[in-house]
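Private note to self, pasted from the team thread so I don't lose it. Backbone tokens:
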């Protein structure tokens, strides 16, 4: 299909950026959703794309660093630091500082905080001296468990936004999500052993198994004691999984700590989560963020979007963590009503101030239909939420406020 760039009105609440062509199924099960770019730079600016095993083993690493001239002739040291030991994704900090040592200190803080928050929000592993989500899943049904402030606030945030998003994002669905997670892991393992085969028979979960698991997903059974910062789970079989919000929530925390430590200008890229810190150092008023094409073998970038300082841009897609079985693609985002992977869109991007909210909403809007999306938007009318949807035919729809800031890739 020939690419079009004309903006076509769909109605008062939505507008369309015409079809960008149909892609074919990619072979990567971990391509991340989004890449930041400065001026004319490519997706490599944010460290996205596929990295080799050798490159991953060399992380963390710093770029060579350069000196650039900013507005009013100011000199700024620019560098990028990249690591891959938190939230199962490549994380990159691009920063502009007065000297090299200041950047190194900012990068060290960025990495250590992401590592700490990864352990805190992990529901698959426990760590010495850390009370995390897995600890809660294992012990909080027996007695209230005291947790650190960031974990408590993450859980409170998720409960507070549950009804506002019409129940589309439920962190108490861990038992159901685990079924799909284990299936995805099994398919991946089988794919990696295509030469010899594992001999395992892989099939989709039964409706009965999904319903039985989902019977233990009542968010009201998660009891939060604000005064004592304790967490209790009333249903012993309920399992927490904050994967829909944890990375964005952590990104927001890290950005605030970097600003408090003195980083005035930069970008955090954590997979599909982009968070800008301050404004660009040159004459531009806004940063430029690239949204990856949902079928990245078709082309790398679908569009670029202007993003102001201290703003988040988060994308959820069906090409980040997915598997294919009998020729059908199954995304990692599970619809709480059908209990099957959502399939209305290939990607959804959110632009708003808070990275945690952007992450949470990118999942909600990925699942919601058009009528539900209107209700959710109304619930966040004061939060400055902009949305970009990409459907299965690569048609792009967006809320009106973000339209002037979008440029489709040729």
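Design output:
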């Amino acid at each position: 299909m020939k690419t079009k760039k004309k903006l076509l009105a769909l109605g008062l609440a939505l507008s369309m950026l015409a079809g960008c062509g149909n892609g074919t199924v990619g072979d990567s099960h971990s391509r991340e959703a989004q890449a930041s770019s400065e001026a004319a730079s490519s997706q490599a600016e944010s460290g996205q794309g596929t990295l080799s095993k050798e490159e991953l083993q060399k992380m963390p690493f710093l770029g060579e660093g350069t000196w650039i001239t900013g507005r009013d002739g100011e000199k700024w040291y620019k560098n990028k630091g990249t690591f891959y030991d938190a939230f199962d994704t490549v994380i990159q900090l691009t920063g502009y500082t007065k000297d090299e040592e200041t950047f190194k200190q900012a990068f060290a803080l960025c990495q250590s905080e992401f590592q700490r928050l990864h352990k805190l929000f992990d529901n698959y592993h426990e760590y010495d001296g850390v009370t995390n989500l897995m600890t809660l899943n294992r012990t909080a049904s027996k007695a209230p468990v005291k947790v650190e402030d960031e974990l408590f606030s993450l859980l409170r945030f998720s409960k507070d936004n549950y009804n506002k998003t019409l129940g589309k994002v439920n962190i108490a669905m861990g038992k159901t999500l685990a079924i799909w997670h284990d299936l995805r892991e099994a398919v991946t393992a089988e794919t990696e052993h295509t030469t010899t085969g594992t001999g395992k028979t892989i099939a989709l979960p039964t409706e009965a198994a999904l319903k039985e698991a989902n019977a233990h997903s009542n968010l009201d059974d998660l009891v939060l004691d604000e005064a004592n910062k304790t967490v209790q789970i009333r249903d012993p079989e309920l399992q927490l999984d904050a994967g829909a919000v944890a990375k964005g929530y952590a990104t927001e925390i890290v950005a605030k700590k970097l600003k408090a430590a003195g980083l005035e200008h930069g970008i955090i890229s954590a997979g599909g989560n982009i968070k800008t810190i301050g404004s660009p150092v040159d004459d531009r008023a806004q940063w430029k963020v690239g949204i990856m094409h949902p079928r990245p073998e078709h082309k790398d970038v679908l569009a670029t979007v202007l993003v102001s300082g201290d703003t988040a841009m988060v994308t959820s897609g069906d090409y980040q963590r997915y598997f294919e079985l009998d020729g059908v693609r199954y995304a990692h985002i599970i619809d709480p009503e059908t209990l099957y992977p959502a399939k209305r869109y290939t990607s959804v991007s959110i632009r708003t101030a808070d990275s945690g909210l952007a992450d949470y909403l990118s999942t909600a809007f990925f699942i919601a239909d058009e009528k539900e999306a209107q209700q959710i938007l109304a619930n966040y009318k004061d939060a400055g939420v902009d949305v970009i949807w990409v459907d299965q035919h690569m048609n792009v729809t967006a809320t009106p406020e973000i339209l002037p800031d979008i440029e489709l890739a040729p």
